[in-house]
Amino acid sequence: MESGFIASMLFSASVTLPNILMLILGIYLKKIGMINDHFSNQGSKLVFNITLPALLFLSIIKNPTDYNSQLSVVGIGILGTLILFILAELFAARYVNDKKERGTFVQGVFRANSGIIGLSLCANAYGSAGLAIASVYTAIITLLFNVLAVITLSRSLAEGGKTNFLYIFQQLIKNPLILSIIAALIFTRLGFSLPQTLISTADYLADMTLPLALLCAGASLNLRNMDGSSRVAIWSSIGRVLLAPLLMVLIARLFGLQGIDLGVIFLMSATPAAAASYAMVRSMGGYAKTAANIIGITTFAAMFGSSIGIVILKQLNWM
């Protein structure tokens, strides 16, 4: 029993510690002035528009898989996200007094950082096999995240709470993550192949993604904004770090999932609030400080939450 617990602890450390160290390195490099906000902003744009799409594209075309077998994983992700969204909306309507804060709260609960932290955790835990499953999962969930985020923010920030469906459509058709995954799925479906030179070039870009994204995430954290003054930020963070992964795991077990499938679902949901949530709140005229607080709180809390969750699930032989 003791050896099993130690093995679970070591596995947990192997999955989460690289991410934690890279985040800390980003904080340190910014502190000593080696990188700054401009570097973080430009690096984040590079990741979002170039290197992460390359990583997602390659992970799909280089790891052919039976996507029908992943319907249960994706379906549970969709179901869990919708349940989180509804619960958060109901909670916000009752307990968040400032209407303009409601969308920020709701987005913080359901919108996980699956595109960066989640993919990194799955890669650390299961290698290319986990990354292939996680990439397909990310494709669908990213699409759903964007739709739900625009809906809830539009309702809480716009006059009369009207949803701008044209804006939603525009955001979806130009999202590089969604486009790259759709392209990869079409590419593999039609049986095409890329020249090795192009694959090697794309590999260079893809290999930059996780370390650069984690460095930028660490450097972007504003520790001064993590003052805990906003009850909305604290409530939303609790929902993101505790409720979200617990709900996802319970749904997965209800449908009989275990092993790598349940592991991917847990690792994808046991992540901080997505960094993109801050940009969306700010661009739509919401309270950016609340969004920043949620990201800051959940980034640190999720480090410990995911580690503890991995140990528990390994002890139960669920992942």
Automatic annotation (TrEMBL):
A Pfam family of this chain: Mem_trans
InterPro entries: Mem_transp_PIN-like, Na+/solute_symporter_sf
GO terms of biological process kind: transmembrane transport
Gene Ontology, cellular component aspect: plasma membrane
Positions of transmembrane segments: 6-25, 46-61, 73-96, 108-126, 132-151, 172-192, 232-256, 262-281, 293-313
Localization annotation: Cell membrane
Membrane topology classification: Multi-pass membrane protein
Keywords assigned by UniProt, alphabetized: Cell membrane, Membrane, Transmembrane, Transmembrane helix, Transport
KW Membrane (keyword) present: yes
Similarity comment text for this entry: Belongs to the auxin efflux carrier (TC 2.A.69) family.
PANTHER family named among the record's database cross-references: AUXIN EFFLUX CARRIER FAMILY PROTEIN (PTHR36838:SF4)
UniProt-recorded name of the protein: AEC family transporter
Native source organism of the sequence: Testudinibacter aquarius
